[in-house]
Amino acid sequence: ITHEAFAADPEGSSRELFAFLHWDFTDEMAAYVRQTTAGEDRPPRSMQKRLYSVHRDPVHATQRWRKDLSD
Predict the structure, then answer these.
(1) Residue 38, exposed/middle/buried by CB under 10 A (0-12, 13-18, 19+)?
(2) Which of 3, 14, 40, 48 has the fewest CB atoms nearer than 10 Å to its CB?
(3) What DSSP assignment string belongs to 35-48?
(4) C-alpha dihedral over 66, 54, 33, 7, to 10 degrees?
(5) Nearest-5° angle of CA 44, CA 7, CA 26?
(6) What radius of gyration, in Å, describes the C-alpha atoms of the chain?
(7) 13: closest CA among 47, 52, 45, 59?
(8) pLDDT digit of tens for each residue in the chain (71 aa)?
(9) Nearest to 25 by CA among 35, 37, 36, 13
């Protein structure tokens, strides 16, 4: 699993990783992955910038380095 693949499909990649490890991937885990990686379910903007926030748009995060380096 690459970082980009995980960012493109967090739930599917999580399921794949857990299956590889022979671990159970519960509905609660799937809901958590969806909640913390869905662009439309974002926390308030003031919380999005927090260093340790788990709410991220994974596709945006994998592309952000390009913007950061071009600024």
Answers:
(1) middle
(2) 40
(3) HHH-GGGPPPHHHH
(4) 10
(5) 85
(6) 14
(7) 59
(8) 788 888 889 999 999 999 999 999 999 999 988 888 876 545 555 555 554 556 667 777 777 777 777 76
(9) 13
Tokens of 47: 């919380």
Q: What is the pLDDT of residue 15?
A: 96
Q: 3-class DSSP state for residue 61? A: helix
Question: 18-33 as b/e, with b when 16 or more CB fall inside 10 Å?
Answer: eeeeeeebeeeeeeeb
Q: How far is CA 12 from CA 28, 45, 63, 65, in A?
A: 14, 27, 20, 24
CA–CA separation, 17 and 66 (whole Å): 27
